[in-house]
Amino acid sequence: MKRWTAAAATALILSGMGAGGAAFAQQGDSSAPIDVSADQQETINSKCITIFRGNVEILQNRSRMRAKQVTVYSARKAGAAADNANACGNAQRMEAEGNVYLVSDQQQARGDRAVYTFDNNIAVVTGDVVLVKGKDVARGDRLTVNTKTNDAKLESSTPGRTAPRRVRAVFYQDDNKKTSDAPAAAEQPAQR
């Protein structure tokens, strides 16, 4: 069975936004430009918030995130006044809402909402979570990923054997294995 790492799609993209997280640096170039497009952008300096609304798409290297809205919460610089335009520092948290879709080279994840907290490297995707890597698929209600260690936990909001929305995963065997153990003589034409 292939090692399941589809959760890394979330880690890969979310850790790269804003502060250039450690996990992204391990998997890609965190210094690569971040290309954000949206129907609208609003920056509220007094609260250190930047909001991208409407068909938001964020690209960095070959990773992509799409959502209806993405809000970035930044830290206030020590001693900076609220009315100072340069009062905001590094990103602390990023929240993506509305049909969140995350894609990297080999993996995809989607959910209704995603939150990444920069100081503890934790990404949480909630609401009808679907993870895909190749032909492998996993579903649940809440995915929590430590982007530094790549530890992941997929949970259901209704546990129990008879619950309708349990965590479910389908894994396919490695397609590169030879399935034929037939002797080599069978492959050669018989001599007469």
Describe this structure in words.
- With 192 residues, the chain is mainly β.
- The protein has one domain: Sandwich (lipopolysaccharide transport protein A fold), CATH 2.60.450.10.
- 7% of the residues lie in helices and 48% in strands.
- The protein has two helices and ten strands, in the order ααββββββββββ.
- The protein has helices spanning 8-14, 22-27, and strands at residues 35-37, 40-44, 49-60, 63-76, 88-103, 107-117, 122-133, 136-146, 151-155, 168-170.
- Strands 1, 2, 3, 4, 5, 6, 7, 8, 9 and 10 form a ten-stranded antiparallel sheet that branches.
- β5 (88-103) and β6 form a beta hairpin.
- It is elongated and about 55 Å long.
- The relative contact order is 0.18.
- The model is unreliable at 1-28 (pLDDT under 50).
